[in-house]
Amino acid sequence: MYDYHVHSSFSGDCKYSMEDMVKGALEKNIKYLCFTDHIDYDYGSAEIDFVFDKNDYFNELQKAKSNYKGQIEILSGIELGMQPHLAKNIHEIIALDNFDFIIMSLHTVMGKEMHEGELFKDRDLIDAYFLYYDEMYKVLDNFNDFDVVGHINLIDRYVKHMNNKTVKLEEYKELIEKVLKKIIDKDKGIEINTSGIRYGISSFLPTVEILNLYKELGGEIITIGSDAHNPEHVGFNYREAVELLRTLDFKYITIFKNRKKQFIKIE
Questions:
Q1: C-alpha angle with apex 204: 198 to 207, nearest 5 degrees?
Q2: H or E element that contains 8
Q3: Residue-wise pLDDT tens digits, 199-209
């Protein structure tokens, strides 16, 4: 089992230490655990600080690696919240070297965060979807220092702010197809983020429809992550995610170390 999206107290929205999360992973027989704590600059109007001290992070990670050597492979990573205006100068803000793995995620759109519904105010839902995926494409067009796009359809999780209105994939398929093609052309990947089930949207992130589209377009690079913010959720629905990939005829899951990908055959 390879969980490549896990948070610790270095994320502003998580109170559990790295050691707490490692202990949770050991209970689930996780083989590889990658800490992908939040670094998210200009995060809308939210009061949570999504930036951590890189030196403190690596000191704590090294301590965990030493304490649990031989029991579990612990890897370094970040979930980098990106916006178009950050894409060209992010390296002036933070050095991205030394990490094993980088997830690029969109949590805000045009400076408006989604978690509390700011993006959806005074806007039709379909317009929010177009803004979200257009913003993602702009980031992809100007930024290359990442390995996978995290929870690519995260916006689905927040339609609760629109009284759970929905839009069909066909309404924005041309745009998300453009996004997926850009990811594939860059030799990057996406993740199956299993947290969607926990948050009540009845599917992983992304949906089966988007996974099928990704595969049809030639996408192969795909990691699995629980997006755990507490030890109980480490490895959440991992086997179900693998089974879904098998059902969709994906042949491999992907893991990373030192920013280099390795394909693990789905048995």
A1: 145
A2: none
A3: 888 899 999 99
Which domains are assigned to the chain? Answer: 2-265 (3.20.20.140)
pLDDT under 70 in the chain at which residues?
Answer: 44-47, 164
CA distances from 202 to 158, 168, 181, 189, 266 (A): 13, 15, 26, 23, 24
How many CA atoms lie within 13 Å of 256's alpha carbon, on the beta-carbon side?
29
Instruction: Give the pLDDT confidence of 212-241 residue by residue, as tens digits.
Output: 999 999 999 999 999 999 999 999 999 999
Q: Quick one: which of 235, 260, 252, 205 has its CA closest to 1?
A: 235
Hey, what's the torsion of the CAs at 267, 205, 220, 233, to 10 degrees?
A: -40
What tokens does 262 get?
Answer: 């390795």
Cα–Cα distance measured from residue 125 to residue 106, given in angstroms and rounded to the nearest whole number:
17
Region class of 109: left (phi > 0), else alpha (psi between -120 and 50), else beta: beta
Q: What is the pTM of this model?
A: 0.94
